[in-house]
Amino acid sequence: MSETRFQKTPFHYMQYLALKAFCVVFALLPYRFSVWISRTLMRGTAVFFPNRFKRMEQDIARAFPEKSAQEVHQIAVKSWSNMGTILAEFIQLSHMSREQFKKHCHVTGLEKIKKAQGITGGIIHIGHFTNWEAFGLAASVYGMDKAVLAQRVDNPYIDEETNRLRNIFGGKTFYSNHGEQPFFAAMRWIKRKCLLGILIDQNAGSSEVWIPFMGRTAAFSPITALLAIKMQVPVFPVQVERKKDGLLVCHILDPLIPPTEYTLNTTRQFTKQLAAFYEKCLRDDPASWLWAHNRWKREAEGNAYLQAHPEERV
After folding, report:
1. pLDDT means over runs of 10, the chain (314 residues)
2. CA–CA distance, 101 with 133 (Å, rounded to integer)
3. How far is CA 275 from CA 81, 272, 291, in A?
4. How many CA atoms lie less than 13 Å away from 305 in the CB half-sphere?
5. Where do runs of H (alpha helix) occur along the chain?
6. What DSSP designation does 150 have?
7. Which of 40, 79, 152, 271 would suit a FRET pair with 201, their CA atoms being 20 to 30 Å apart?
8. Which pLDDT score, from 0 to 100, does residue 153 have?
9. DSSP label at residue 143
10. Measured in Å, how far apart are the chain's first and last C-alpha atoms?
11. β-bridge mates for residue 220, sequence order
12. Contact at 8 Å (CB) between 137 and 168?
């Protein structure tokens, strides 16, 4: 990791001030209006990122070859607009009292996690769908002792502010791309019988396993599977739904139980099982996923690796 990557610069500070001003303004607006205006503004920004938007459409078309060009475009626009919705909801929710928060974000299946908390601990399995940040806040509001494993962003001022808001109701953050030994920090946390949230539906930069995802080879981090198998803790999938009136409902589903034996093969197979959960979510509601993320960034590298190591195909 470059020593200079996360250094603070005047340009970083200017970006932070702009974001801070945006947050202050949006926190003062009525909830539904702030969501509408942020979604509308975000939809307009797509014209400034033509290459990324085009890649989104290409990825969607490859994932859903049966869909027309118009349908593909609509999915891309809705996914892009959802980023604006997420931003406004996150700002609004993080500035509310706990009582106000519960009016805008509900959690179902809470008893499933409460059984694990303090007894076995567990891992919260959530992807970049609808509004994953809302569930991170809800976990603390609704009484979960949680930490999250996240990737640090390059702007340290923005990273610090985002991390502050993520944990404003409680919790902590471990960084997977900054600092030493995030695996062992996460392991110590789970040993305390607490809950750890991990997003693995993003491109893994290192220590990857190559898993087919939407018909294409993708680099997945095996950390969820490794922790679950080594610690023998359940993995709780979570789906976030946005109702027509804007209410967010976080559904905690039945836990996935890891294999009892740790091997490289069981780790790969359990990672594939976790990836399959995301794939089903994506197929059910493709516009809710963060297509702007380059999920198949290392596809060619993965295909070459599996060709040389066919025994690692799963």
Report:
1. 69 93 93 96 95 97 98 98 97 96 97 90 95 96 92 89 94 75 86 92 84 95 94 96 96 96 95 94 96 94 95 91
2. 13
3. 25, 5, 16
4. 14
5. 10-28, 31-45, 50-63, 69-94, 98-104, 110-116, 132-141, 156-166, 182-191, 223-231, 264-284, 299-308
6. E
7. 40
8. 84
9. T
10. 30
11. 209
12. yes
pLDDT for 107 equals 97
Q: What is the pTM of this model?
A: 0.92
CA angle (12 as vertex; 10, 14 as ends), nearest 5: 70
**Cβ 153 vs Cβ 159: under 8 Å:** yes
Q: Give pLDDT, residue 178.
A: 54
Nearest-5° Cα angle at 84, 83 to 87: 90
- Measure the CA dihedral 27/29/35/39, to 10°: -100
CB-CB contact of 199 with 128 (8 Å):
yes
CB atoms within 10 A of CB 134: 23
- At residue 165, the pLDDT reads 94
3-class SS at 146?
A: strand
SS3 content of the chain, % helix, strand, coil (to 5): 55, 15, 30
In this prediction, residue 1 carries a pLDDT of 46
What does the alpha-carbon distance between residue 281 and residue 80 come to, in Å, rounded to a whole number?
A: 18
Q: Which tokens sit at 124?
A: 């919260």
Question: Closest Cα partner for 222 from 180, 262, 282, 168?
Answer: 262
Could you list the beta-strand ranges (E) of 214-254: 216-220, 235-242, 248-252
Amino acid identity, residue 263? T
pLDDT of residue 177: 64
